[in-house]
Fold these 2 entries.
Entry 1:
Amino acid sequence: MQFIKPNKQLEIIKQNIDAIIPEDELIKKLESSYENNVPLRVKAGFDPTTSHLHLGHSLILRKLKVFQELGHQICFLIGDFTAKIGDPTGRDKTRPPLDQEVIDNNASTYKDQVFKILKDENVEILYNSKWFNGFDLSNLIQLTSLENVARLLERDDFKKRYQAGEAITVTEFLYPILQAYDSVVVKSDIEMGGTDQMFNILLGRQIQKAFEMPQQIGIFVPILEGLDGKMKMSKTLDNHIELNDPPEEMFGKVMSISDDLMSKYIKLLYFDRSDFFNEILDPLDRKKLLGHTIVSEYYDAPSADLSQELFETKFSKKDFPGDISEVQIQLKDKNLLDLLVEISENSFSRSELKRFIKDKAIEINRNKLTSLDYLPEEEEKWEIKIGKRNFYKIKFV
RNA sequence: GGGGAUAUGGCAGAGUGGACAAAUGCAUCAGACUGUAAAUCUGACGGCGCAAGCCUACGGUGGUUCGAAUCCAUCUAUCCCCA
């Protein structure tokens, strides 16, 4: 492997990054890697607490790809053991523990999603259960002696919880220490994460030092805001775009963000081609382009075209979309509510549906439904719209 | 180990015996306006019933009472102070 010049590498690495700590050491590492022709080991860890990675994670994955293209070794760490504890970062409550089965399942879906971005080369996938299952208690005690409680309590999220009188379990204190120990095992030269991972990643340096090994460099990517534009993107807050979201949903979610947020997304996700976006002055068109670009990236251009088209019929033209397949429904002895419940596959309760009718939120064949007395005839076809995003096509038999 | 406090709907947080399906805010959903933007305004926001109403719900269990989120006992969990 022929590396490019270290200062050139640094320039590329520094794009769209919040911080490198400490930067001068990174230069040294790059130089020695260059001289000895040995790739750097770049670690990034993910806890399989949910089955999906989202656009926020993609910032880290993209940067990993940069390292990959520069010829370095990616150590993709799946925290299947630590997931059982739950990273307390940014939390105001203890996480509920997860079942092994769920964790395993999530971990396996991660790989598929990761390779939507990364190439299948120079990647090691590591599971930390490998070294933590069967980790000796005396080792653990030795490990815990390397960090003190006061320092842990200085961490912003712990501090807030402590001051607010919220519970912090000892297990949660253990989390950063275990994550740090991962770096010892992985022998990472670099660890990447969001800026909220600052503490954990820097603790990795400290623990590596205690193990008398070279210390890793922390590289911090910016945090992507969630769809609400307030909190960071996360599954728990349900403000995320998953890498696995179906194309149409992905596109729809992009369209729902505010203009301000759109600019931020463009800046963070497509910093290298922001001119391309900024040429388009009309915000609606720019947002569509953003949605299209994102869908194309995780799927392909035809899917992106299709989802844009569906979006436009559904919402801009308020037409009934063409991709809904017709469902046959038995008519006998059912009243309107029964039918609506059946059609929507129990997505709504009867009370909810009644409210929708009162609010004029249900349309049948383009007419707003105003009473419960309306009933279909046999062989009749209905196109039903409930709220703004639920469409059904029915034939009664 | 001792003492004190707290537990309410997705979250935050009122409510101290009937007027409580439980104020208010956030979140959510719908309608209006739009670019399904955002902001704003209006309404809804446990379930079942066309409705009167019924059922389920204020940490768990058991009691007092005609009646309990509210009182008592007990259990559980969390926090604080002392040791």
Entry 2:
Amino acid sequence: MGRVSRAPRTGRGLLGQRRAVMADVARLAGVSYQTVSRVLHDSPDVKRSTRDRVLAAIQQLDYRPNPVAQALVTGRSRTLGVVSFDTTLYGPASTLLGIEQAAHDAEHAVAIASLRALNRSTVVEAVERLVRQGVDGVVVVAPQRAAVDALRHVPRVVPVVAVEAGPDDSVPVAAVDQHAGAASATRHLLELGHRTVWHVAGPEDWLEAEQRVAGWRAELSRARAPVPPLLRGDWSARSGYEAAQRLVETDATAVFVANDQMALGLLRYLHEVGRETPRTLSVVGFDDIPEAAYFTPPLTTVRQDFAEVGRRCLRLLLAQLERRSPAYERALVAPELVVRRSTAAAPR
Amino acid sequence: MGRVSRAPRTGRGLLGQRRAVMADVARLAGVSYQTVSRVLHDSPDVKRSTRDRVLAAIQQLDYRPNPVAQALVTGRSRTLGVVSFDTTLYGPASTLLGIEQAAHDAEHAVAIASLRALNRSTVVEAVERLVRQGVDGVVVVAPQRAAVDALRHVPRVVPVVAVEAGPDDSVPVAAVDQHAGAASATRHLLELGHRTVWHVAGPEDWLEAEQRVAGWRAELSRARAPVPPLLRGDWSARSGYEAAQRLVETDATAVFVANDQMALGLLRYLHEVGRETPRTLSVVGFDDIPEAAYFTPPLTTVRQDFAEVGRRCLRLLLAQLERRSPAYERALVAPELVVRRSTAAAPR
DNA sequence: GTCCCGACTGTGAGCGTTCACAGAAGCGAT
DNA sequence: ATCGCTTCTGTGAACGCTCACAGTCGGGAC
């Protein structure tokens, strides 16, 4: 008597048959479950013959350790959470991809939380959701000021790192060096002989946008070139189109546009009004989206290595997880200028 | 003697303090853990006053149920896995977003697995990875033949649905009705008076591409228009550019291009050789990427509702999870033609 | 032969929940 | 009073694993 044999509660048996558990393997191999566990974690002190028997049993039963049970007992789920905003944008999507690949290489799973709107509470809520879900750490893809700001209010029960965020001392950050990228774009145009370089910036609440502005300004003043008034866009092609309308009223001969989409809108307007690119106006973009090479004309732009950012970011996160954590660190990845046909020497 | 008080193994206490567990709440509220559990699942039979005491204790200790423990005992993690290929492409990225939002609304978490290469074994491996990770179900974003093919070899220990896959009887599918979209694009051009419509297709191994071909053919034959030879691209702007080179050698006056990127490359070539769009050649794309409105000229294209696809897909998956599963089902979402300025009446 | 040590293997407990019961009040009806 | 309900609450076990520790076994040294 004693134990009543009732139907097992568990067993994802979509096909009826119950998944083998460690005890089944142990029974088949004629050892204790502890020995099975040892084989699984290839502990050195298991006799060769025992190990082989266990391995055979594992194979025969198609046994896989239950990650949930492992997570429960170890307190680590080997899952990382990523919160991001608009993943249909090229940058965030690539960043997400980079993180996922790096996490995969580090044998971690990735859970995602996309925000529908970006502000302090949505970010906090997303992080909480991931934590509640049991992730070991969170990476916040936070290119906007609101997201960076939110970082300070995020519960710190698990390690957090930010990607693409601006300088901020609250969490470690991995990012592309926007300042350097903007500077090299600007320098490229100055070296072509343009007296100065105009700039169509991204929205003020994006730190990347501000850093590109800063890089542009720094390079201009380094070259003692006059600093023209700043034009603002919102990353969209439409806003680039509108910026172009203002630009053509000026004597600009070169413009550095803060992303490729806006550059596209700008090129479109220039074309409409018959101002040839690059003959009368040189244009540099930022991002190097796959289409950039097929713009009219093919766009000179700045390429960002998102895979590398993902790797750096993961390194920072895992370091924190293993408690050998620098409280704050900033990993910068150098961007690369890709010269195509939208830039030319200044008209004389 | 008896229990040795050793340091707790667990407790993600990054800040030192241990997370409260159910027993702590029970103790504080002066009830058993079972009662706490009942309150959490708002079971009807808990006295009002008891419930309030428990709720207060939960609040005071900032208690959150441990999802891992819940998953272990219930056998459900409330996590869904998504495997997808190139998430920097607009379509897959939007699909992923749609699924994530729908999953969120259904109170499920989403784990992702991106493939670096697409073939049977990578898909199978990705699904296995997700399953090993403990997801309750998997959605495969499988617009390519290889992915669809792989679906048959995927372990069926958890429910699987495919998104954007072609017709296939092995798993339920949610998708945009590519055939209808292609037909409406073609019809639009025919209605403008073009004698026939050429087509630049996507790669043969993409089922979406094939369905668009089929929709285009069907519409042409419905209108008794001649069927011109098919041009093939690979989705990239470059391949559209190359297709354009072949196209300008013909007497084509209208072309339906299988995605917006290729349409962009095509427009670029037409511009280079001085063939005006749409005066001498009308162009329709597919996808309606955000930039499409800023092409030169703004592109007439077919918009897909990815959010709806995500919702449908989730419905199929959850239905299977709750065992009220239709073994096979196909949920089609109707696309929408967006007319812009790349199409015009046929030249006479 | 006894002791000790290394190599290997097993046992008990516990991770934080939920499930299936069993049990304790409270209360109207007999 | 006693019974039989309903209403509410508690107990034991289980989920599948890992950790800490306690064996068992064989053989070389004394």
